[in-house]
Design a protein that fits this description.
The chain is an alpha+beta fold and 643 residues long. It folds into four domains: 117 residues, no CATH class; 173 residues, no CATH class; 105 residues, Immunoglobulin-like; 103 residues, Immunoglobulin-like (Sandwich). Helix content is 15%, strand content 38%. The strands form ten sheets. Strands 13, 15, 16, 19, 20, 21, 22 and 23 form an eight-stranded mixed beta sheet that branches. It is elongated.
Length: 643
């Protein structure tokens, strides 16, 4: 039996309809307006040079797309980004280089990987209907929300360009393939900032070029080197060197760096840094008067070169002043040379002993290997040989300031069984001789032991003993100033030698803090010591000498004696005048504090005992009581419910 149901009340129907409409509104707000409330934008940098890339990370945690509003000076766009990869983020890139060349929007705005970008709406400010980014601040925000979920970037004019030259050993260009490899080479000591590069070595030119990142990113070549040189195919863009001082016979030459067989590029565009790795043995020079590729090229020669970088028709690196000295990134191409040398010694004197050393300088880059050989006779028979690495230490070969400093090397030999006599010192790399010098092996070891100034004979300085294998002189200095020397001494060991001082020499000694005695050779053979010609004996790179300190309080007495009361310096164990150890003890006391003095405060300003008792103060007690009452009340309530 069918029973008629009463109709639903009208108020109930209206209420249900309102609930449904509200639900639809919520759904539309969360899913239909994709690109507003669930999108967040972050910028990679706050500031970027015009011509570089703007990078934004767009977060889409609740949807696969969103709409962004791009606003700036006389600029407005709507950009829809789609997270096709499903990772919840879109890497948005804006190429300001292309934007300022009237490129279409789909070339200016791109996304990484599978994600996509669609540009719509806004104004067209380009000359041909494309994009145009002027200087100023641009905001990228979820559509309808320019608050905390937006990002801003200021586009500025590119700053000046500059360059720095580095040197690496020959044959290392293929190891410098990325930024990490370049950093490893610098840490290992075989990539060195320099003003000179030896021919056939590897040159690394570091160029700081703001505003190039967009042009590099616009190239579609498969690697950085190919993209860098493809960029140079653009009209008005070229990187090359030119010699600062033109050869009077060959004229000005250019060294084009657009040949991948001799050059590689390592780009760090986010830092505006570009490394050009050049194998100098493969680069050829071209007369500047002719850019015709068919013109025969010549091998490089010595000279000072300056890098130039023309970009979009503008001279951005060194410009018109490329023939001026001290250009940015200027470097000299040098012959491959080495000079074996001992400072102030000619010929090179080597002691016939173990751990004998011969050093020198070279134009080769640090990290290069050189072989130092001691040879003898017309057949260049090898007496000793050692292969060593060139260090980053720079040294003036002769110490006279006339020759440019080179990179140092030092070879070590065991010559205990070698026969004294003349030798030739030869330095070579990869079988090619780089330099030679005459040398002499001498028996025995030079030594000097200084006794000091004789208290009974203040006009003399006494040397306890000295060994001069080839004879010579004992020379005395006071605080670096020459005082006196002995007559010529025969080869061998001499004991208790007195070096007489004249009246003027004795006056120089008054108030001096140190005296030094060293052994010198009769280099010019005239039997008289001459500071300009007679060279000191060396122990490796060091002069054979002995030094003693003189007490300022006793300039005429034996070193170390005096009339003042001396007390112990607790730090060094030496003596000081006028310091009372008794006073120091009384001040500190045997227990670390003096009587009647409060315990020392801690760094926080209170003593440890006071700090540990602060918990008994009033504030702490009230808190504890309230907490205890609350726990007790809670327990009482629980027991009542259980009962």
């Amino acid at each position: 039996m069918n029973v008629a149901r009463p109709p639903l009340p009208r108020w109930f129907v209206v209420a249900c309809a309102l609930v449904c409409l509200a639900s639809l509104a919520v759904v539309g707000a969360s899913g239909g307006a994709a690109g507003s409330d669930h999108v967040t934008v972050e910028a990679a940098t706050d500031e970027e040079d015009r011509g570089d890339l703007l990078r934004f990370a767009v977060s889409l945690p609740d949807g696969d797309n969103g709409t962004l509003a791009v606003e700036g000076p006389e600029y407005s766009r709507r950009v829809r980004v789609t997270d096709a990869s499903g990772d919840g983020e879109v890497s948005l890139r804006v190429n300001t280089y292309l934007a300022n060349r009237s490129a279409p929007p789909d070339e200016v705005y791109t996304a990484a990987g599978e994600d996509t970008v669609t540009v719509r709406g806004g104004n067209d400010t380009g000359d041909n209907g494309g994009e145009r980014f002027g200087l100023g601040t641009y905001t990228v925000a979820p559509e309808g929300d320019a608050g905390e979920r937006s990002a801003s970037v200021t586009i500025t004019a590119p700053g000046p360009w500059n360059a720095t030259a580095f040197a690496a050993p020959a044959g290392r260009a293929d190891r410098l393939t990325d930024r990490a490899a370049i950093e490893r080479a610098r840490e290992a000591g075989w990539l060195t900032r320099t003003e000179g590069v030896a021919l056939n070595d590897t040159l690394v030119l570091r160029v700081n070029a703001p505003g190039v990142g967009g042009a590099l990113a616009a190239e579609s070549s498969p690697n950085e080197t190919a993209r860098f040189f493809a960029m140079q195919e653009r009209p008005g863009t070229a990187l090359y060197w030119t010699n600062e001082d033109p050869d009077p016979h060959g004229g000005t030459v250019i060294l084009p760096l657009n040949e991948t067989r001799s050059t590689a590029a390592v780009a760090v565009p986010r830092k505006d840094i570009y490394y050009l790795v050049v194998a100098t043995d493969a680069v050829r020079a071209v007369p500047m008067e002719s850019h015709d590729e068919r013109v025969p090229r010549s091998r490089l020669r010595e000279g000072v070169f300056v890098p130039r970088f023309e970009f979009d028709g503008e001279d951005r690196l060194n410009g018109e002043a490329f023939t001026e000295p001290n250009g940015s990134g200027e470097f000299a191409l040098l012959e491959r040379e080495a000079t074996p040398v001992q400072r102030h010694v000619d010929p090179i004197v080597v002691a016939a002993r173990g751990n004998a050393t011969v050093g020198g300088t070279t134009t080769l880059a640090p990290g290069s290997r050189v072989t130092v050989r001691l040879t003898r006779g017309p057949d260049n028979r090898t007496v000793a040989s050692d292969t060593v690495r060139v260090s980053q230490e720079r040294r003036d070969p002769a110490g006279d300031g006339y020759d440019p400093p080179g990179y140092a090397f030092r070879a070590t030999f065991d010559l205990r069984n070698a026969t004294p006599g003349g030798v030739d010192v030869r330095v070579a790399a990869n079988g090619t001789t780089l330099g030679t010098a005459q040398g002499e092996l001498v028996g025995g070891v030079a030594a000097v032991e200084l006794a000091g100034r004789d208290a009974q004979s203040p006009d003399q300085v006494r040397v306890a003993n000295a060994t001069l294998p080839a004879g010579g002189f004992l020379v005395v200095e006071a605080d670096g100033r020459f005082l006196a020397s002995t007559d010529r001494l025969d080869p061998g060991t001499h004991e208790n030698v007195s070096v007489p001082l004249g009246d003027l020499d004795a006056e120089k000694l008054e108030g001096a803090t140190t005296i030094r005695a060293f052994a010198a050779r009769d280099t010019n053979g005239d039997g008289r010591y001459n500071v300009q010609y007679d060279r000191p004996y060396l122990d490796g790179p060091a002069v054979v000498n002995d030094t003693l300190a003189l007490s300022p309080a006793t300039p005429t007495g034996t070193p170390g004696t005096g009339g003042e009361t001396a007390t112990t310096d607790g730090e060094s164990g030496t003596t000081q005048s006028g310091v009372s150890s008794t006073a120091t003890t009384a001040e500190t006391g045997s227990g670390g504090t003096s009587a009647g003095t409060a315990p020392a405060e801690t760094a926080g300003g209170r003593n440890p005992t006071a700090a540990t008792t602060r918990g008994d103060g009033p504030g702490f007690g009230v808190t504890a009581v309230l907490l205890a009452l609350a726990v007790a009340a809670l327990g009482t309530g629980v027991r009542r419910r259980r009962s």
